[in-house]
Amino acid sequence: MRTMMTRREFVTKGLTIVAAGATAPMFLTRTAIAINNPWDLSLTAQAPGRPDWPTLVVVQMGGGNDGLNSIVPVAHDEYYRARPHLAVPQDKVLRLNDEVGLNPALQPLKALFDDGRLAIVQGVGYPNPNRSHFRSMEIWHTADPAGTGPKTGWLGRLFDSECPDCGEIAGLTLSSETPLALQGGGGRVVALDNPARFGFHPVAGGGPQELEAFRQLLQPVASGEPMVDFLAHTEMNALVAASDIGRLASKLAGDSGGHYAKDPFSQKLRIVAELIAAGAPTRVYYVSLGGFDTHAAQAGRQDRLLEILGGGLGAFVADIKRKGLEERVLTMTFSEFGRRVAENASAGTDHGTAAPMFLVGGPVRPGVHGAHPNLTDLDMGDLRFGTDFRSVYATVLEHWMGVRSDPILGGQFATVDFLKPHPGAGPSGRVPQGTRARRT
Amino acid sequence: MPIALEPFAPSSSDPWNAAKAGHLLRRAGFGPLPEEVTRAVAAGPDRAVAALFAFPQEPAVPPIFDDVTAAERRLDAQLEFMRATRQRPKDHPELRDLYQAVAEAHGRAIIGLTSWWLDRMATTPAPLQEKLALFWHGHFTSAFGDVHDAIAMFNQNQLFRRNAAGNFARLLDGVARDPAMLRYLNNDDNRRGHPNENWARELMELFTLGIGHYGEDDVRESARAWTGWTLRDYQSFEGRRTFAFRPMLHDAGQKTFLGQTGAWDGTDVMRIILAAPAAPRWVAGKLAKFFVAPQPPADIVDAMAVVVRDSNYELAPVLRMLFRSRAFYRADVLHAQVKSPAEFVVGAVRHLGVQDPDWIRLSGAMTLMGQRLFFPPTVAGWDGGTAWMNAGTVFTRSDVAAALITGRLGTPNLAPLGSPATIAPYLLGRPLSAARQAVLAQAPGRGPAETVHMVMLLPEYQVA
What we know:
The complex is a heterodimer.
Chain A: H1 7-19, H2 28-33, H3 38-45, E1 55-61, E2 71-72, H4 77-82, E3 94-95, E4 101-102, H5 107-114, E5 118-125, H6 133-142, H7 154-162, E6 171-173, E7 189-191, H8 209-217, H9 226-253, H10 264-278, E8 284-289, H11 298-322, E9 329-334, E10 355-360, E11 367-369, E12 387-388, H12 389-401, H13 406-409
Parallel strand pairs in A: 1-8, 1-9, 5-11, 5-12, 6-7, 6-8
Antiparallel strand pairs in A: 2-4, 3-4, 5-10, 9-10
Chain B: H1 18-28, H2 34-52, H3 66-84, H4 94-123, H5 127-139, H6 144-147, H7 150-162, H8 168-176, H9 179-184, H10 198-208, H11 216-225, E1 229-231, E2 243-245, E3 255-257, E4 260-262, H12 266-275, H13 278-291, H14 298-310, H15 315-324, H16 341-351, H17 359-368, H18 391-405, H19 420-428, H20 434-442, H21 448-457, H22 459-462
């Protein structure tokens, strides 16, 4: 028999528990709800060698980042022939090995690579690639290229399947909309721009009792109107999340360290680092950088975006290290597709297919993983993928989050060797499934 | 007439009343006031719906572009002088400052334009026209961040206003020649031998057909047909704001597009697309998602598609029929939509009688709520519906409501809202449920400001 608090009980009791815990240690909410939380048990007690509370930061590069000008195949003449205007000159490329190197705009990633904190998976894609931004983004978010499964996100399903009564902030996105990737059946995702401003503020001249009144007003009443009921639920969840975030606020305000640039992407990563350090009960953070749809005048624009990306990630990793959290945080980048091998007339590139992914942080096994896609055997002018993106997801889920991936991804995908083995894990680095605890 | 759009016939058991008239005015506008609802009830459904379509003349160019034109004129003059005297730009570092001045002037102008549009939404006698302009802005998206030209964005905004309830085919033709769109989706760079597929793809995927009704080959062939649809010239700012078809850049060869072969150009592509059965349904589906519900009932969409097709893409008939239909007032349509940030903010300004609203800060708040006008997040526009509401946007709505109530974003007049007992019906257009009204009545600290604030946070105030 499950004895977990029901979701509704948590929504009502949770506030009280949190409010009582001003002096409690880190992960207060987690402690409050971990009474019956199988996720905690599996991740800490039953996943030997796993760091306490492994955290994933997902970086979405929206618009379709040109992989070939990110990880440049310097050794391939076909690349230079296909891109007379756009190819990165050989002497500018930051070499990673004999075959490929980084775009010079990614200098901070080269430093991370040399420091053993960057893994690259080349040629990531999926069968029958879709060249629509929206459909391909949806495929990456749902991990469902066939489009036959539920329209939920792979991370949302992680929260649903492994963390049934976790707090309201299992996922946190620094944006005004919740990406599909984080949407599951149960919510538990918070979208916010700025944790310092996030929360309920009574009208000026009013008092704290307005919050209590508002909370009472949101108590479920059967309105008979599904949208009203949905919004009441959303607003109640917001109050619960605000009380969690509010508890962290003093710690957030105190830390101005780190050397982040002023651009919004870097500032979002700064907030993520602060939230992690403050002990936010969050497993997955989501940060987006858009504008990679470089149909025209690609060079300057992509360079600038890669500078922002590399600068932000470099500052983030340094900050996380300074905070002593280096082994607890893994960052993964993705884009909905790469771009056409041949440049177009506008010194840009049109929608393509396979592209590399970056995995950044202390936990990675550094290096270039997977073969570079063949530049002569093309599919309608586009690269053929070598690694299914669901293999990357499976690796993150199993070897980092410590959960079974097949129920979440709808099948078993081979994992990729881009994470360091953890002491105590099996020879394959895989979490022994049979020993995972389930509170029944 | 399709059965799902049969007209609503008032009867003594199901009269035309404030609930229905309020619903109509909320969907067709921005936060109707009680007296407007009363007038629509008195008018009856026929005249209330007809009145929505009395659009005023096209508004004059707002006086916000003077800086832009002055800065552009200075730069154009300098460039003209240099061309005449055969000087090279790189020998003239002062050009950099002139370019910078132009960019900054456009940046200020887009803020001014945003304020102008929000103010127009709040004060126009024809809110449906602005509601439709907002709909088309989210459908035929262009973003200032890529276009970099506030005048081009204004011209596009006027195109949407002029054709708001006109003919979709004519609007599409205008969009295909619209300089902001040509720049946003790069068709200005699409030329013979070197096609750029951006516009050709989104035209079908997002604007007319939807995924599944064309193939990758159709994208490539369509891109060829659109070559040469570009801007007049790049020598002046005016040239960059003027459409031209340039035959030298056009690929006049044979193309096979959606199964038809010919020496097609853009006009042919539009004609072939609009003859496809999927096109009227796509247009109807987008309208229904906006005006009916985030997931509109299929019977309504199907019926709307028939009307769109049979009227040769005239938009007023389908909208009029929808607003007049029994189905529009069904339980699965009433209160089934979520107010967009524009509806929430403009409606709040109207409900609270705010004089001299600070539209600049209000539009900044709308950005935090997920809707920055002239900056749609992607070429697909705004998802809308439930995507508007999450923990972050809930609190932004709360903070904006509090700031409006307490006069930090203009001067409100709360007197018409009356007493705590009448505040909720005033703002919601209907009585609050007994259970919530009881809580509201007993809430501690229930001054008028707090009561207004709490009502504006209720789920009932977020729905339209």
